[in-house]
Design a protein that fits this description.
With about 240 residues, this protein is mainly α. It has 11 helices and no strands. Helix 6 crosses helix 9, helix 7 packs across helix 8 and helix 8 packs antiparallel against helix 9.
Length: about 240
């Protein structure tokens, strides 16, 4: 994602001051992502970018203001990306594949930016100045997940019964685990996340199949001649659901 992309998405009438802040934030993101919030100062950011310490101080009151601007801009871009996947999907399988592929690509290509977001969210536990912005960003991501799951419900014909906050927590947990393993160099991190997201969606969107599979041995001692319920993977790979 580039500053030019941001300009295009926002349109030609964007506030010039806000646009300049976004440019400066993206110029600083490499240093912030490499060192983290606690080990980075505005002076160090200036030393690793083309902008002076004075310029950074003019547009940002402190490094907390700068890092929040950067993360907020990036997460807004993420929301737009997944909204496009949701809007374009015409089947449950297409939505599932687009969602899983988007998560995988995001970890693979932008791990440093996600690390910065989780750093900011952790700092909010200690820094009151971060809490309102973190809560707002978290809420936008929660709403994004809810739109995806609502679209899934439309395509499968099954009402979504879990609350938005719980759904967000489930997927965010899987994503953060994958990010930690990926940053540690584990090659299996992203493939595992793909499988786990598919399994989670199978249980959320097709709970009756999971219940039947778990209860079957207790319902009868005789061998069953009925077809076994689809597995978590096969359920989510179905192209049509009724």
């Amino acid at each position: 994602m580039t500053v030019q992309t941001l300009r295009t998405e926002r349109g030609p009438r964007v506030d010039k001051f806000a646009e300049r802040r976004a440019e400066l934030a993206w110029a600083a993101v490499k240093t912030l992502a490499e060192l983290g919030y606690a080990r980075t100062s505005l002076r160090e950011i200036a030393q690793n970018s083309e902008f002076s310490h004075g310029v950074l101080h003019y547009y940002f009151k402190d490094k907390a203001d700068l890092i929040t601007c950067c993360v907020r801009t990036y997460k807004s871009h993420c929301v737009t990306r997944y909204d496009q996947v949701t809007a374009e999907a015409t089947s449950a399988e297409q939505l599932l594949d687009g969602f899983v592929d988007g998560l995988a690509a995001s970890v693979q290509e932008e791990a440093h930016l996600h690390r910065l977001w989780y750093d900011l969210r952790a700092q909010a536990l200690f820094e009151p100045a971060f809490r309102a912005d973190v809560a707002e960003i978290d809420k936008s991501l929660e709403s994004m997940i809810w739109r995806i799951m609502s679209r899934f419900a439309e395509l499968t014909g099954r009402l979504q019964t879990l609350p938005p906050a719980l759904l967000y927590s489930l997927f965010d947990g899987l994503f953060q685990q994958c990010l930690l393993k990926h940053l540690a160099g584990e090659a299996s991190a992203i493939p595992e996340m793909r499988e786990h997201v598919r399994a989670l969606l199978a249980r959320i969107c097709f709970p009756e199949a999971v219940v039947r599979r778990r209860r079957a041995p207790r319902e009868t001692n005789q061998p069953s001649t009925a077809a076994s319920p689809p597995s978590a993977r096969s359920v989510t790979r179905s192209t049509t659901v009724s």
